[in-house]
Design brief:
A hairpin with a 5-residue loop joins strand 1 and strand 2. This protein is mostly helical. It is globular, with a radius of gyration of 18 Å. The chain has a two-stranded antiparallel ribbon with strand order 1-2.
Length: about 325
Amino acid sequence: MSRGAPRVGGALLTGALATTTARAAYAALNARPPGGREAWARTNHRGEPVTLLEGPAAAAAAAATALIAPGLPARGRAALAVAGAGAAVFGGYDDLKGSAARRGFRGHLGALARGEVTSGAVKMAGIGATGLAAAALAGGPGADGGTAGAGAAADLLINAGLAAGGANLLNLFDLRPGRAIKVALAAGAALGIASPAGALAAAAPAGAALAVLPEDLAERAMLGDSGANALGGMLGAAAAVALPRRARIAVLAAITGLTAASEVVSFTRVIDRTPPLRWLDMLGRRPAAVSPSPGAGGVAPAPGGTNGAGEVNVPGGAGGMSEAPAKVQ
């Protein structure tokens, strides 16, 4: 039996456990929503009700499962759990308390420069600190072996950037039903292809994402910031604990480039104009609603926050649908 076989088996077990746990958590949260059902309820662009409870369910299941994932070193398990739990908490805060008055990095940082602390700025700082904590727990070397001095400091910064940047980037894709989850599953698959260690590290967030995909595609629920930030942060942390330094630098460069592009380019427009991407984006989704208003991707803009490119991100709308105060997906 090859050395990677036990890790692949552990990844399958971890993924299955995360899927089962996420489904149970979602059912439990729906039965007794913290703070009442209305706190998590939103209305999508079809005028249909959706809930944000999918996000906390997926985040809690992924973080809890990562803590007991077989085959991962204790520090790696802790790093994944901290990345997921911290991002979920700060993302959830922005979901429930956020304001749509400021948009994107430029909007929140500009407000901060004028002395205004927005919910988005709080989330940015919190997820940054969470990423740093996850990186410290993971240790600097990743798959490279031990490092010290300047090498360890560089690894710490790279890994922190992966966890925090991954959390933010996946949230930028949470603009249509199922889109962020499909990106999360693709990222998890890529890590699994990269190495058996990558499969093991990505199994918990990928399994939890798979569990809530049907609800997301059916537009009954959405990840919101809580779920998207958590799953993205955990996938970034998975890259940190599983990949060699050169690969981690490449992944961080891709995350940074896509995040910068989101400030000026609409991901939805790029996807809509690229047939293979559009086909994948629509796979499993209901037909797009027809709107007389030319919103992003044909959906009428809803009040709320957007990314820098003007895409509406409604926290509580189902993947790109209008929703109540806070982030507009």
